[in-house]
Amino acid sequence: MDNKETLRDRIQKEARQSKAGFAHSKAYHRFFEGYTEIKIPNPNGKGYKIQRIYTGDYHSQDLSKVQGLLLRALYVVLFLCSAALFVFSAALPLSSNSTWYVVITQVVSIPFLFWILIAFISYLPAGQNLTIAEFRSSSLALQKATLGAAISLGAAALATLVFLLLNPANEPVSELFCAARYLAAGLLAFSMNRMEKKVNYLVIPSQNKAPVDEQAEKQAQLKPDN
User: Fold this and answer.
1) CA separation, residue 3 to residues 7, 10, 61, 62, 150 (Å)
2) How confident is the model at residue 217 (pLDDT cuts 50, 70, 90)?
3) pLDDT of 84-114, one tens digit each?
4) 3-state secondary structure of 47
5) Computed over its alpha carbons, how large is the radius of gyration of the chain?
6) Which end of the chain has the smaller Cβ count within 10 Å, N or C?
7) Where in the chain is CATH 1.20.120?
């Protein structure tokens, strides 16, 4: 079993352990996945507060600090180039850019490009050790967003070529270069996806100890032995 499969199994295992605690929404469990929590009664005896501590595994890039910074800088450059190629091509006053099947691929590409930006918000400033939620919102999100962008931009290139085949007399050179730019943008997004997939993440067990539920311990001590 390779590192990616081991990592996936650990995430799924920790998700099941987390959901075995208090009853909360699915989004709550995803956000606090890997955390252990207990209820602590308030001093006035009314209600309680939840104490959490991260006891799940950390996920750390097997890269030096310099390598991590260079990788982030490379991702930013690749994204900016990909986005620039897409915007420049989509903004051209060409007949293909007003054809419905080309426009659909352009519209689909936009959310994926924005998703990459959102993933960057978590990925670029991320520390060395990532919790499960941080790993999911940075590396995994970036992989999904870049793959979606690559597919949709490739579809835009293909749709433009289809238009060119159906309308060969309508600015063929300009349409061909437009398709090439869409394809280049998609390849840049795909290269980001492949690079991030190849990054090795070490799984590091947390050294944090789970908080002690004093109320549960007292109840256990008061319980008579059989």
Assistant:
1) 6, 10, 12, 12, 25
2) low
3) 999 999 999 999 999 999 999 999 999 999 9
4) coil
5) 25
6) C
7) 63-199
pLDDT at 2: 57
Fold of 63-199: Four Helix Bundle (Hemerythrin (Met), subunit A) (1.20.120)
What is the rounded CA–CA span in Å between residue 15 and residue 131? Answer: 12
Distances from the Cα of 210 to the Cα of 17, 34, 133, angstroms: 13, 11, 18
Strands (E), the chain: 35-41, 48-54, 58-61, 129-130, 201-204
User: What is the residue type of 185?
Assistant: A
pTM: 0.77
Surface-to-core class of residue 134, CB atoms within 10 Å of its CB (0-12 exposed, 13-18 middle, 19+ buried) = middle
Q: How far apart are the first and last CA of the chain?
A: 45
